[in-house]
Amino acid sequence: MKKQGSDSNPASVLPALPEPLKDLKIKYTKIFINNEWHDSVSGKKFEVFNPANEEKICDIEEGDKADVDKAVKAARKAFELGSPWRTMDASERGRLLNKLADLVERDRLILATMEAIDGGKLFSTAYLMDLGACIKTLRYCAGWADKIHGRTVPMDGDYFTFTRHEPIGVCGQIIPWNFPLVMFIWKIAPALCCGNTVVVKPAEQTPLSALYMGSLIKEAGFPPGVVNIVPGFGPTAGAAISHHMDIDKVAFTGSTEVGKLIKEAAGKSNLKRVTLELGGKSPNIIFADADLDTAVEFAHIGLFYHQGQCCIAGSRIFVEEPIYDEFVRRSIERAKKYTLGNPLSPDVQQGPQIDKEQFKKILELIESGKKEGAKLECGGGPWGDKGYFIQPTVFSNVTDDMRIAKEEIFGPVQQIMKFKTVDEVIKRANNTTYGLAAAVFTKDIDKALTFAAALQAGTVWVNCYSAVSAQCPFGGFKMSGNGREL
Amino acid sequence: MAALNGAVENGTPDRKVVPALPRPLRGLEVKYTKIFINNEWHESTSGKKFATYNPSTLEKICDIEEGDKPDVDNAVEAAKAAFQRGSPWRQMDALSRGRLLHKLADLLERDRVILATLETMDTGKPFLQAYFIDLEGCIKTLRYYAGWADKIQGRTIPVDENFVCFTRHEPMGVCGAITPWNFPLLMLIWKMAPALCCGNTLVIKPAEQTPLTSLYIGSLIKEVGFPPGVVNIVPGYGPTAGAAISTHHSIDKIAFTGSTKVGKLIKEAASKSNLKRVTLELGGKNPCIVCADADLDLAVECAHQGVFFNQGQCCTAASRVFVEEQIYPEFVKRSVEYAKKRLVGDPFDARTEQGPQIDQNQFDKILELIESGKKEGAKLECGGLAIEDRGLFIKPTVFSEVTDNMRIAKEEIFGPVQPIMKFKSIEEVIKRANSTEYGLTAAVFTKNLDRALTLASALQSGTVWINCYNALYAQAPFGGFKMSGNGRELGEYALAEYTEVKTVTIKLSQKSP
Fold it and tell me: What is the mean pLDDT of residues B37-64?
């Protein structure tokens, strides 16, 4: 997803950046079940907007419980003993995933343009990072398909015992709007690799790339019913999935608030298995012996990437006292370098927030920062007449009790706080119900590994940030999630 | 379990010295009746106590301190402190954790007769079964996990670009454990052993019907030398102490064994509170499939023990016996013979095979389901009623001509009732066996390799037994498909339920392949 430090490694050269497609036609706007396109049972449609200019892109069929029921029936049938999917060799499943990766590579430009227009994501980022990660994750999981091993177990007594690692069954997957295509792939790739069938509900703000994938899934040759896609809203289609009595597992990426509702619904309905990837308020700890330029750059990208809309955003930066002032100075300089505007333009470094709701929430939190006494170093308000743009904002002299230090902002707002000692910063860093990621910048091996052990986070980065790759498990401690992806 | 772990057959020397059967302790005094926190015994915050009864005699055994939310809070505080970075428990070498578990197993061996006596008094299960099966399972499970303690390994991962990447499998933290009354000590050990092995701390709530052996373990935990706060035990009721655990914001994980109905409430409470991780071992309506080519005697005996063991109070109970048409009448005939021979009586008598049901609630529920069997048209072959006017004893009951729509074929009975149904083809029996929201265990009796392995693949159950029943040992994972549970206990797989994965990624200046 994030290739920090890719500059020095000749082995992985990023492809040249093409121009985004002008006049992209949206071909797939319906509900995808059994490899066919369906209208919604209710006849309803909903609108999708471009957050850079608030203009409508198109209408999408709005799925609700009835459509989810249809999709689950199709997925259940595709999962039946003796079906094409169940009798397919595991290696063939892997081949199909690799083929899908090939098709994503072929249509990389279309998909990247779509992500930029639908999600307000910088086209360059979408093309190079998001699409790169999608292709790699598909190929990674493709390789695992025929390596899902059980064990033989030396049990007491006259027995021959072995375990089988069977597919769970029909998996419901609810995808967020911040990395629509990447999160879609993170869910379907391991699910299909292990032989499950899926019913996917993409976020209502960003359904386009998921629906396009439906066409590629059909083209790649997945049997009908293996992948079904039902666009719609959380309280309707999403709830239908989390409550469904015939869905065996639900995987969700989104806010902690909604994650709790989903796990509750799973318990109330049929005890379906649950994986959750939720929010974070991740600490980024900078020691005086760190390479200061590197630390500033990583802290900057670690927060501002994709307009701050990342679950792993390094939104509490703890800087050791001796270098605090210099760190703040360089961070402001870095944040001021930004050009905001149309995400399709190569000269732009920051796009819009996803929608009005998020836009308002972020501005409200910025105001709380000002009110509660943090020092506003730059930015601090909206930008432009149209679209949901917010100026890159930096607060210094932030204290742990302020709302901007406690709540997930999900916007381009960077908090920089001061610390004195190792034990103090460990306590402060861990003092949150979140636990998704953390980072420490230091050259001292003892410090680095002490923090790696002490920080209560699913991922700990040392001298880097946002290094996420298909090979390494990703997920949350505490209320940042249950279970691991990748 | 029904095979007695091969206690007598395996490794018997030529010169046969048959050990005398252990005898229960008469007049055993119950020493531990309080709440166990920080290796000390506490009274309940409220001052309340509750009584625990002997289901064979219906007499009160003693009073136990009744824990509620404040006591759970105290226990969690202690468990949290014991889990703090830098605490004795966190600083202890993994190997030493393993040694403590081995020592605990040694003490269980030393006090085996006491524990088996307590278990029989509290649950009504036959003393010899408590001694040879429950306690055997406890000791072996502790030793199995003692061996894993210093082998909780993460991975190094070949990630793209210039990074060193590895995972750590860390303890989750404070684990809540809510245990049932059917195998009180064994179900506690199934949770305690992997939890401690992985470095967690515990707050345990044993079933209100059967707190005695769990509390006794508290004394052994202290004697072995586990640091204070590592294991805490709060006896009490589900809606009070149990709910306090499942909703607690400082408990990182909860493990529960019990009914599916309560399991759902627990998962819901975990979600509503702090998204604590959840493992559930719930009910079952387990199919036992007997093919015409099976060894008939073996099948009849296994099916019999499979349903009647522990007074029918097993989540693994073989409560839907599917018999291939051709051998159906003979199978029923032999099963009835077995059932009629089953000795029901005082669990302290060495000859007794079946004791009382656990309490009035369960007793009434089982009789009600038996009545439903009669009303809905099943054929009552033997038993079908309670044994005396006084007491919780039920006659071993066999129903034949059972059809899938009857309540006794759908609902978990948890009593000594064996429903036997007929089937024609493998395809048909697979569908019928899987046609339930449960999915805990299944058994297949056949000599045909193809049929055995086809059924092993097709049955939606966490465990499939072939030509055996209740073969449960520490090495093999156990748990439910569908609504019989979430997650696995035992085996290496339980470790995943008690560890949290942390990925550490370190940037290097150059790629180091």
Answer: 97
Helices (H), A373-455: 403-406, 422-430, 445-454
Residue A3 has pLDDT above 70, yes or no: no
Name the minimum distance, in Å, from the CA of B109 to any CA of chain A.
19
For the cut 80, the answer to whether the pLDDT of residue A117 exceeds it is yes
Asked, for residue A19, whether it belongs to a domain, the answer is no
Find residue B158's DSSP bridge partners: none
In this predicted structure, the answer to whether residue A11 has a pLDDT above a threshold of 60 is no
| ∠ Cα A112 A114 A119 (to 5°) | 100
Residue B315 catalytic?
Answer: yes
A331 and A393 together in one domain: yes
Tell me, yes or no, whether A223 and A246 share the same domain: yes
**Spatial CA neighbour of A113 closest among A24, A17, A5:** A24
Residue B14's pLDDT band (boundaries 50, 70, 90)?
A: low
Q: What is the dihedral angle through the alpha carbons of B402, B406, B408, B409, rounded to the nearest 10 degrees?
A: 70
DSSP string, B42-93: E--TT--EEEEEETTTTEEEEEEE-B-HHHHHHHHHHHHHHHSTTSHHHHS-
Long-range contacts of B477-480 (CB under 8 A, 24+ apart): B477/A163, B478/B281, B479/B279, B479/B281, B479/B440, B480/B280, B480/B281, B480/B282, B480/B284, B480/B438, B480/B439, B480/B440
Kindly list the residues from chain A whose CB atom is less than 8 angstroms away from the CB atom of residue B280.
271
Looking up tokens 């492809």 gives A15
Interchain proximity A156–B6, CB inside 8 Å: yes
Chain B from 420 to 439: CB within 8 A of any A CB: 430, 437
What predicted TM-score, i.e. pTM, was given to this entire model? 0.89
Q: Which of A9, A278, A482 sits opposite B162 (nearest CB)?
A: A9
Same domain, B417 and B293: yes
What is the rounded distance in angstroms from the CA atom of residue B33 to the CA atom of residue B185?
Answer: 15
Same domain for B291 and B267? Answer: no
Looking at the structure, tell me whether residues B105 and B161 fall in a common domain.
Answer: yes
- Given this model, what pLDDT does residue A303 score? 97
Instruction: Find tokens 């929201």 and name the residue.
Output: B437
Structurally, chain A folds into a number of domains equal to 2
Per-residue pLDDT at B456 exceeds 70: yes
A204 shares a domain with A346: no
**Measured distance CA(B15)–CA(B21) in Å, rounded:** 18
Q: What's the rounded Cα separation, in Å, for the pair A452 and A272?
A: 33
Contact call for B277 and A482, based on CB within 8 A: yes
Structure tokens at B122: 């509290």
Whole-number Å distance between alpha carbons of B39 and B221: 8
Q: Note whether ipTM > 0.90 here.
A: no
In DSSP terms, A170 is beta-bridged to A197
Amino acid, res. A437: A
Q: How far, in Å, CA of B478 to CA of A281, rounded? A: 37
List, in sequence order, every residue forming a beta bridge with B503; answer none if it has no partner. Answer: A459, B167
Give the single-character DSSP code of B134. I
Q: Which of B253, B216, B204, B56 is nearest to B135 (CA)?
A: B216
Confidence band for B9, pLDDT divided at 50, 70 and 90:
very low
Asked if pLDDT for residue B309 goes beyond 60, the answer is yes
**B438-449, pLDDT tens digit by residue?**
999 999 999 999
Categorize the per-residue pLDDT at B160 as very low, low, confident or very high, splitting at 50, 70 and 90: confident
> Domain range for residue B375?
287-476
CA distance B69 to chain A (A): 22
In A89-148, the residues whose Cβ lies within 8 Å of chain B are 136
Instruction: Chain B: give the shortest CA distance to residue A161, in Å.
Output: 7
Average pLDDT rounded to a whole number, residues A184-192: 98
Positions of A annotated as catalytic residues are 277
Strand A316-320 with A389-390, pairing: unpaired
